[in-house]
Every structure is written in C-alpha cells, then in structure tokens.
Amino acid sequence: MKKCFVLLSLFVFNLTANATHNRSGEIIYKRVAPFGTLNAPIYTYSITVIKYMDHGSLIADRCVDTVYFGDGQKGIAPRINGGTSLNCGCSGTIQCGQLIVQQIGYTLKKNIYSILHTYSGAGTYIISSSDPNRNVGIHNIPNSGSVLFYIESLLVINSGNALNSSPEFGSDPVNQATLGVCFYDNLNASDADGDSLSYELIPCAAPGYFYPEIPASGSLTLDQSGTFTWCVPQFIAEYQVAYKVKEWRKNGSGVYILNGYVIRDRQILVNPGTVGADEHKGLTEIKAYPNPVLTSLTLDLGNISYAAIGCSLYSFTGILIAEKNVKKGENTLEIDLSNIQSGMYLVKLELDGTQKWIKVLKE
C-alpha cells in the first residue's frame, strides 16, 4: 500500500469558543393591528430577523437577538422557529431554530427572531441587527472570522402609505455553485402590498469586501427579474454577496416613491466539479473511505488501467497542501491526515487531462 504523506503548514480553522459564524440573513417587517384612527394612527410593526449560521459545539447559539429600530430604541427579539430537539438551552417558550442543511463539513441552521415595535410617527427608519462574527474563510472578505455580521432594512412611514410590508424572499439562500459553471439565484421576492420591486447587487457591509472574480468574458449581475447571474465561479471557496430589494409605491401625484428596502446578505459555496472534458470513466470508479476520516483516508483505485494518476490535497479554499503521482500498478492509495487540522479538504485526482474532486471531512 502506497502512502501519500501530508505536510501541513497552513490553513488552520481558527475557531474560538462560542464563535457565531453567521453566513446569511435579512430583516423583514409588516405593519400590524391595531391601526388606530385616521386622525390618530398607531404605527406598530412586526419585525422579523432571519439569520443562517453554522451549528455545532463551538458555535454560539443565540436564543434572542438585539434589534435596533432606527428611532433610537432597541429591543430583544426571541427566537420563534423550530422545536426544542436541538437542546439549545433556551428557557421558556424560546425555540431552538431549524437545521436546514446537513452535509459533510457544512451544516446550516436557520434562526428566526420576531418582535413588535410601535413608532411614534411618520419617518424613515433603518432597522438593523449585528452579531460577531462572520464565518472563517470567506474568500472575498479579508479576515472574515473577525468581521461583524451586519444586516439592515429601510422602513418608510408617511401619512399616505397606509399599510406597509417589506419585500420577502420566497426561498432560503442554500443553493450552491459549481466551479466553472454559471450560477443562477432567483430571489423569488414578493411584496404583500403589491408595491413595485427593483433589485441591486451591492457590496456586503464588511471592510475590504470585493465582488466575486469573473473571467474577462464573464458576468456578475442582478437583473430586474430578480435573477442573480455569476458566470463563472473561478475558485473553490466561500463567497459573500448582497442583494438590495427596493419597494416603490405611487404617491397622490402618480409618481413612484421609495417605500423601503430589504437587504439579503448571503453566502455562496463554490464546490468542485468536473472541469474541461467529461470525467474519465476510470475516475468515476475510484472510492474514498472512511469519510469522515480521523487519521488515514484510503482511495480504492479499482481495476482501471493507467500510466499515472495525479493526487493532490487542497484546503477547502483551494490552497494546495500536498501532491503526489500514483504509479502504474498501484490499486490503493493511503493519504495520511493524522497531522492536519480538523476541517473540510479536497482531494483532486487527474487522469488523461480530466479531473475528479472528492470532499473529505477530517475529524
């Protein structure tokens, strides 16, 4: 049995106790009863904060969230979704959130927090929430593990806008991209009041942020149908993008005026895929086990015929850690992972100009 020994001097997941690891989120609002009278209206709004984050023993699990209403006041919103099966430790009627993605090395939890707030009168209010921190390793946010996760929405209250609900998204931000393949994300946004919607791709609220890279002939757009297009992802990595959805309503003169907006700050994972020609038939037969792995990963090469197969180990952000050629006649390959940090890695196999990628979780 041939061994591919790994020397690791980089890419440490610098997890700290009770890290938050926020990945995506938005804030929505809706005016609720009682509405008062025409001469003395009551402006009470239900405000909902939705956050998507990692889940695990080292991840802080927020039973409540602080919401800033934009009028100088703030409130503590309890989490309202999910049951109590996750043993989150929240007391009373506060629930534990929902696990909506459970993959090797990637678990995503959806937390919904809700609170009522009454505004004193007409005005323009920035509703916001923040939390330390974003997850480690976001490609287009430097030092993302130390960067605050911040989201906001704009609420406009005036005597002529009657009821006002923000735009809402019809799906969770969970779809993932593939290396070298165009990625599409339809926001599926709607407005309960029938307001007209427009869309903007904006920078995330993070120092040093830059938009995802594209090739010279590529595109990165958010059109007015609400479809985000990224042609094409260039690296295996985690990226952050932000969408601003504005709502517009006609005033008494028939002119459209801004009635508010919602920003969705979302993460997109770019996963490996077959690049170039179709995957070599022999590569499809290669099996990897155990996965998750504690010390040693075995690749079973089967009975395929080859002169040499290239074997490379990468961090999940695409950094090369080690590489080796498998020579003719070897039918198994053992990769020693005993000295590397826990986390997600990628094994790339190359044969006759084609590739196969295998995700590996090191425990």
Q: What does it look like?
A:
The protein is mostly beta strands and 363 residues long. The chain has two domains: 22-271, no CATH class; 276-362, Immunoglobulin-like. Helices cover 1% and strands 48% of the residues. The chain is built from one helix and 25 strands. It has one helix at residues 281-284, and strands at residues 2-5, 22-31, 43-53, 64-68, 74-78, 98-103, 106-119, 123-131, 149-157, 168-169, 177-178, 183-186, 189-190, 196-202, 219-222, 227-231, 238-250, 256-271, 287-289, 296-300, 308-315, 320-327, 332-336, 343-351, 354-362. A hairpin with a 6-residue loop joins strand 19 (287-289) and strand 20 (296-300). It is elongated, with a radius of gyration of 24 Å.
Summarize the structure.
With 363 residues, the protein is mainly beta.
Number of helices: 1
For the largest beta-sheet, the strand count, sense and barrel status come to: 6 strands, mixed
How many beta strands in the DSSP annotation? 25
The value of Rg in angstroms is 24 Å
Broad structural category:
mainly beta
Q: For this entry, what is the oligomeric state of its chains?
A: single chain
Rounded to the nearest angstrom, the distance between the terminal CA atoms is 23 Å
- Strand content is over 45%
Chain-averaged pLDDT? 86
Low-confidence blocks of residues:
1-17, 274-280
Number of domains: 2
Helicity level:
under 10%
- What is the global morphology? elongated
> What is the ordering of alpha helices and beta strands?
EEEEEEEEEEEEEEEEEEHEEEEEEE
